[in-house]
Amino acid sequence: MIAGVDVLRYTAFSDQPAGGNPAGVVLDAESLDDDDLLAIAAEIGYSETAFISPAESVGEYRVRYFSPLAEVPFCGHATIASAVALADHGSPEELRFHTRSGEVVITVGRDGAGHRVATLTSVTPSITAASDELVAEALATLGWERKDLDPDLPPRIGFAGARHLILGVRSRELLAAMSYDFEALCALMTRQDLTTAELVWRGDATTFYARDPFPVGGVVEDPATGAAAAAFGAYLRDLQLIEPPARISIHQGDDMGRPSLLTVDIDAGTGGIRVSGAAVRLK
């Protein structure tokens, strides 16, 4: 580790240390260069580490996110973790993060049990077509066929700070058994500038289960993916699969032994999607 750099460790989208998605948080990264940032993220080994530098006003920060292999434009779980870490260190409970994808507003409060909970509002999202060729190649890496997809959740590419391939799966059992060809999916996602694949099963009108392969970051799977959750909320709105205003729950990480809960609020219109979750510090 680089001398003098204090890396905090938080898990996001859970109020228990054994759940959620761990993230590294560096609260004062102003003196670090790109090589330093990547080296620290690689040593920590989490799917992302957030590097924070103060901006012009109180409560404003410049934030960069690094996986063990590369910088990513935006990371939801590291944003939630960072906001709670900042609040734990005395920052205001309303924050503005300046990221490579744009400005993200975060508020921090507490739930009924006293746990800190952060809510991010994504950048303006967009939903675009996923070509038949892309879908076929992605299915091949997963060992799935087109018939394994839910026809009511058609494939799309969702963006709410990063790009995600969204695939609806026909059964919970199929999602639980998910495995994939790491190198093949990594190559496909690199060519298509995709951050994760958001694989989802709809349990009921407002409850979803998700798994998110993340090979481009050097990580087999994310146990909680806030950026993908925001993109998925925009997907439901864009395809009129839910009637705004609406709140959905996404359960992720269960099949990895790190249960996570992401709460997604979807308003009418085209604005940002709100994603909320608890975060706790790891020792």
TrEMBL record:
Domain of life: Bacteria
Cellular component GO terms held in the UniProt record: cytoplasm
Active site: 48
Pfam families reported in the protein's UniProt record: PhzC-PhzF (PF02567)
SUPFAM superfamilies named in the record: Diaminopimelate epimerase-like (SSF54506)
Molecular function terms, GO-annotated: isomerase activity
Annotated keywords: Isomerase
Entry's family note: Belongs to the PhzF family.
Protein name: PhzF family phenazine biosynthesis protein
